[in-house]
Design goal:
With 423 residues, this protein is an alpha+beta fold. 50% of the residues lie in helices and 13% in strands. The longest helix is centred in the middle third of the chain and has 32 residues. Bound molecules: protoporphyrin IX containing FE (HEM).
């Protein structure tokens, strides 16, 4: 009997109920690393589960293309996306070479390590503020770490960079949740008619960003919003939908991913308290801990590619037009690359995880994601005295950007003055 027809790998409901299908990926890596899937509700695809095969595919962007789509769509989403304003936004992550390089250059200067370090004030203040909020009720309490803590940190950082006023932060959060978690009934846009709901969503996003774009064209400040609003490709300004698309992709690509890494990281620390103690004892090694959190949580579960010609991957004959789905979460547990891949170790070294992808489309925001996680992790390592689970964690109903939507914890944190006193 076949190991899987792919349903468990791509159905959001499966993830919501069981979490990511690590047991199936482990079998696939051993028995069928390039595995033909014909799922019930999605297009057929090849499941790519080995680290080496994902590198081979990602580093040949002319042969394995992103333009036809990076996400497997089910029937309803496909119809909705085709008709919505979202489909008109050509976004960097779905543009192939040679144009891709030009589009990436528009904003790459904002994401270099040096440029991101210049944001440390914003990033560290945000981390302090969210932990202060935990400390506000005498330092002890219960919260949902996902919705009360982790969500606020990348939201504040990205909103600041994109010029979204504080009072509009809840709007952008709601809208982007609706774009990415459109499968999850708790997060998706309300409305019986899913296609109409997606159309309205496109319009609302347009309205939100258009005001900021017009303002930064008139008064550029050098922030990310100004860079995007005034971006040139091949000497010509980006079109209106391309500009909006750029705002949207940086926000959506950056927000849920970072949030899910933070929540999954906290879950891993609850299960492995000694690992948080290691960070506390050696804060100078925090960067390694962040890499392990990204490997462990793999918030971007997969990316899709489409073969532009016949090819062979892992000994399997791939036909022109076939879809290949690269499961980063599987590659990040590949026994051929990682010692004890199912152990969470903050000092793992080397750690050649593929959580940020690899090759042409390597995560543009990786430095920002690392710096944001670093700041919150250091703040927690300094001030979180203890924490434990206070209820059942709940997984988002999605197989694309994956993670926990609820993580109830009970905790005790040091107040600001106490932590300063503690050095
Ligand atoms: C832990 C957090 C994050 C993870 C796990 C993550 C993961 C990824 C992955 C796997 C890709 C590769 C896509 C591909 O090969 O097709 C990617 C691309 C991208 N990411 Fe991230 N990301 C994170 C945070 C961010 C942040 C904070 C930003 C920006 C603010 C961002 C912006 C982007 C963009 C724009 C791309 C497309 C790059 C291109 O097409 O050249 N990401 N990300």
């Amino acid at each position: 009997m076949a190991i899987t027809n792919g349903d468990e790998l791509v159905e959001g409901e499966y993830y919501a109920e069981h979490g990511p299908p690590h047991d199936i990926w482990t079998r696939l890596r051993h028995e069928s690393p390039v595995h033909r899937c014909e799922p019930t509700r999605f297009e057929p695809f090849w499941a790519i589960t080995k680290h080496a095969d994902i590198i081979e595919i990602s580093t040949q962007p002319e042969l394995f293309r992103s333009e036809p789509g990076i996400v497997l769509l089910d029937n309803i989403q496909e119809a909705a996306i085709e008709t919505s304003a979202l489909s008109m936004m050509r976004v960097i992550i779905m543009i192939d070479p040679p144009e891709h390089c030009e589009v990436r250059k528009v904003s790459s200067q904002v994401f270099t390590p040096k440029a991101v370090r210049a944001l440390d004030d914003v990033i560290e203040r945000s981390a302090r503020e969210v932990v202060d909020q935990l400390a506000s009720e005498g330092g002890e309490g219960e919260c949902d770490f996902a919705t009360d803590v982790a969500v606020a940190h990348p939201l504040r950082i990205l909103s600041t960079m994109l010029g979204i006023p504080r009072e509009q932060e809840p709007d952008i959060l709601r809208l982007t949740n609706q774009v990415f978690a459109s499968e999850d009934p708790e997060l998706q846009r309300e409305g019986e008619d899913r296609i109409r709901a997606m159309l309205e969503l496109g319009q609302e996003l347009y309205q939100l960003f258009d005001g900021i774009i017009q303002d930064r064209r008139a008064n550029p400040t050098g922030d990310l919003a100004s860079v995007l609003a005034n971006g040139l490709v091949g000497g010509s300004p980006l079109g209106p939908m391309e500009t909006i698309g750029y705002f949207l992709i940086t926000f959506t690509a950056g927000h849920d991913t970072t949030k899910n890494a933070l929540v999954g990281g906290m879950r891993a620390f609850l299960d492995n308290p000694d690992e948080l103690a290691k960070v506390r004892a050696h804060p100078e090694r925090v960067e390694k801990a962040v890499e392990e959190i990204v490997r462990w949580t793999s918030p971007v579960n997969y990316m899709k590619r489409t073969a532009a010609a016949d090819a062979v991957i892992g000994g399997k004959q791939i036909a022109e037009g076939d879809s290949l789905v690269m499961f980063y979460a599987s590659a990040n547990r590949d026994e051929a690359v990682f010692d004890d891949p199912f152990d969470f170790r903050v000092d793992r070294d080397p750690n050649r995880h593929l959580g940020f992808g690899i090759g042409e489309h390597f995560c543009l925001g990786a430095n920002l994601a690392r710096r944001s996680q670093r700041a919150l992790l250091l703040e927690l390592a300094r001030r979180l005295e203890w924490a434990e689970l206070a209820g059942e964690p709940e997984q988002i109903q999605s197989s694309f950007v994956v993670g926990l939507k609820h993580l109830p914890i009970r905790y005790r944190v040091l107040s600001v003055s106490a932590s300063v006193g503690a050095g």
